[in-house]
């Protein structure tokens, strides 16, 4: 009976996606979720060739650090840094990363 008078609880059914987004917002986990989404979908964003030569990938202070095993590929990624950042924004949204550091 105590549940009926709870003003914080919604009585109507909500789509799973919107309920999940509300949960992330309530616990302030949106940013961390997007960072993990970016790391897990790195292969989809940059493709199989770059993904296979990526040794390490992490985010710190809104910078994406990528360790690449191929020298020529490092140079190519440095030249196309802005394009990669645009691809990341399209895939996971704005504000997740602001800079790309190739190691």
Automatic annotation (TrEMBL):
It holds the Pfam family DciA. PANTHER family: UPF0232 PROTEIN SCO3875. This is DUF721 domain-containing protein.
């Amino acid at each position: 009976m105590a549940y009926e008078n709870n003003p914080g609880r919604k009585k109507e059914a909500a789509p799973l996606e919107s309920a999940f987004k509300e949960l992330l917002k309530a616990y302030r986990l949106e940013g961390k979720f997007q960072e993990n989404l970016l790391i897990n979908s790195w292969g989809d964003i940059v493709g199989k060739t770059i993904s296979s030569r990526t040794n390490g990938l992490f985010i710190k202070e809104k910078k994406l650090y990528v360790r690449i095993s191929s020298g020529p590929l490092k140079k190519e990624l440095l030249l196309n840094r802005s394009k990669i950042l645009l691809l990341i924004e399209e895939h996971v949204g704005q504000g997740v990363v602001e800079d790309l550091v190739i190691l």
